[in-house]
Amino acid sequence: KHNPALGKGAFYLSGALAFLDAPGEWIYDTPLKTLYLRPPKNDDPNRHTITARKRPLGLDLSGRSWILVDGIDLHGASADLEGSVHCTISRMTARYISHTRGGKTLSMLGEKSGIHITGRCNVIRDSEIAWSAGRGVSLGGSDNAIINCLIRHIDYIGAYCAPVSISGMRHLIRDNTISDAGRDCIKLGGAELLIQYNDISRPGRICHDVGVI
After folding, report:
1. Does the model's pTM come out above 0.90?
2. What's the CA gap between 153 and 182, in Å, rounded?
3. Averaged over 87-97, what is the pLDDT?
4. Coil, helix or strand for 66?
5. N or C: which end of the chain has fewer CB within 10 A?
């Protein structure tokens, strides 16, 4: 639990139009379908383009098998390989994959976040995965792999998520660069895992009772 006070702690307000008083702050009024945004001082808002996430998934391979996806870009959306078998994603750039306001979050988000993989014998390789409020890659099932990926700026809400969150059996995590996590960089579960030749740094950007792994 977090009790912010004067000079201690950080917090944010949402849905309070009266407090929209600093550059970069915004409120979306759902009934009116109206976005209120405070631009930088002396800036012309007509010079900018505002984008918003349309859907949580940009790539859904759940329940599929023997599919190769090569060179895809995902922005403001994630990928799901729930129950997939022998699928490979290579040379993907995935940014701002998951976002949440958190609500009454104390430890877990209570929702699926990040690139989600279960099933068996699936691979993500040679890819960049960046900017997620929750997980970067959630790895379950068996015999899946993350190889030669750049995974960074993950778990910026500070829950028990990680750039790589592992459960299941016999997964391979090799030759990755993993950095800048709100808590741990790799969250371990399962058994018979092989984690080798990774460059891991800068955990605990929000929480301090952590380990790199």
Report:
1. no
2. 8
3. 97
4. coil
5. N
